[in-house]
Amino acid sequence: MEEEKKEEMDQDVAEEESSEEVETKEDDGDEQYEALKNSFVRLQADFSNYKKRIEREKSQQIRLAGEGVIMKLLPIIDDLDRAIDNSDEEDEFVQGIALIRDSFLQVLESEGLEEIPSDGEKFDPNLHHAVVTEESDKEADKVLETFQKGYRLHDKVIRPAMVKVSK
Description:
This protein has 167 residues and is an alpha+beta fold. Helices cover 60% and strands 19% of the residues.
């Protein structure tokens, strides 16, 4: 009889141990599940952020794709401006050149190019490049004269205006 009691006790102990193992295994399974779930959620968020960043970079590249070509065309605009400024504005040929220049600028403006205002403006080192400073009766840090126009392309300064600034 004592043997039967020992066997029953051993059986009870074995059942308790196996039930503890099952609970431990279930706890381990839940922890693994939560860890995998958290990892998956982080991975999804990272991928979503990656896609958004790539789209932003792609749209910016498309927006600024013409910057190189526009930079090469700006000296031509400067030459046309100088030709018009140093000629008789009543001459029909000069008027034709002015119309061509205006059409040319309209095309570039439709691509996002805009002129940076300078004459009479307050000097801004982000927009203007001071090549000469001069004593003046005007307020200090005012642009007195523009030597070369500056331009922006979609809010990015691609060429600062070269100016004379008052002291």
